[in-house]
Amino acid sequence: MGQWGVNFAALCIICFFGNIAISSTWEPMFELLGATACLDAGFNDTNCGAICTNETAPLREKACAAVADGANRVGDLALVNNGFNFLTIAMCGEISDALGRKKALLISVVGQAGVAMALLFYTNFSQMLVYGVTALFSLGGGQFSFYAAMFSMVADMTAIMSLAERTKYYALLTVLLYTGLCAGPVAIGAVISTGLISVQHSFRVNLVISAALTVMIVLVLAETRLRKSRTSFSWTRSNPLGGMYILSRNKVTIGIAAFQFFLILGSVGVMTIVPVIMLDKGFNSLQTATWQTCLFGALAIGNILLVPIMTKVWGNAMTMRFAGTMFTLFMSMPGLAFNLPELCKPYVLYLFCIPIILGAGWDAPGTSLAVTITGPAYYGITTAGLNSIKCLLQGVTVKIMTTLYAIGKGDGIPWLPFAACAAFNFFGVLCALVVRDNVEPITHAEKSVNPESETTALLSDAPA
Question: What is the mean pLDDT of the segment spanning 94-118?
Fold first, then answer.
């Protein structure tokens, strides 16, 4: 294995374990917020969802109100975290382009640890402000900055490859991303279910992994930024809209950004509301985490099996349209299960994840095509721009979905949130119609890098 292979392997390990650290905070955070809402309502038991679903319980109405409050708290916290991340992700992208990928990746990993530390000491909802300030100083928790830095590195390492080959490596890293997101919730959910560790203390897992990744980035990972790339830091590009401005220079990249805009609204809506509903319906931590695992596992399988084939045969644009259509068809299915009580069983929810395999190829082809169009000098800010959109919308979507659910105060699941998710995806497919593969790179005022002649030594042994 040459230097290129060693670096890509290290990046894969960082991607996998970094996403375990990220996702290991989700289920405990949902449970913690629900439990504190229940205690704040005056209950000794923290499982208000079980009381709310019991038709004969004397305090059922009060418990349902606590369930609604817990759902709103999830939305508020997501909005705070993602809002701060949105404000800082462009700066990470500009740091990546001007000062190096390793620095941006290191900042994002340390940021993840900062947010986990804040959650570790979270004891009541009034401390959300403290959490928000911590998120600000840790670059919004670093999740989307982490993604932007990783995919910038992939762009560097595949700079001399064809678009189809580049997309293959994007898909491979996406597989590890989703696999890590799978492993985190189910592992932490299983441990919490056994009682070996409390929900509050489970955030230590993130701290341990983040510390190990920090050491690996510093000692093992090589810098991938192309020689003679931009060396000047621009405050203009480091503002929250900097990456979006780069994307706005071309109709195709606008289409890619809009496509991801709507699909994030649709997919995150379902991924967020279903775990909240399952916990409120009396499912335990392990069952809830297993559903998330099946969902992300389906996305991982689709990326590794279908994306390399589809992009080679159809190209990136057609793959995006097909995957978006599949998401439109299948993202409303969990709503059907919750509206028909006889279908509201764990194994039925798991089965609904299987068709998502066909919709897995919506992300990697678009990101790969976008960086190809904007050019090597803008890999970091381009991926930051795409992730800025995802970041902002993820927080907004979580708030919208939890608010819609809270309106019902835990009493049945309205079909409207799931129909809205399917509609968002449909608009995304319409946006993908303007995307095409045979486009010229954007010509920027600044000198861009020619990856054929000005590559790093790392690219000398890259796969042909």
Answer: 84
Does the pLDDT value for residue 133 go beyond 60? no
In this predicted structure, the answer to whether residue 414 has a pLDDT above a threshold of 60 is: no
Instruction: Return the pLDDT at 309.
Output: 92
Looking at residues 15-22, what average pLDDT do you find? 90
More confident residue, 83 or 148: 148
Residue, of 307 and 270, whose pLDDT is higher: 307
pTM of the model: 0.82
| CA–CA distance, 49 with 31 (Å, rounded to integer) | 11
Residues in the chain: 464
Nearest CA-CA partner of 411 in 54, 132, 75? 54
pLDDT, mean over the chain: 80
Scanning the structure block, which residue is given the tokens 């621009």? 234
The reported pLDDT for the residue numbered 125 is 55
Residue 200 exposure: Cα atoms within 13 Å on the Cβ side? 7
Tokens matching residue 221: 């990972």
Alpha carbon 241 to its chain centroid, in Å, reads 19
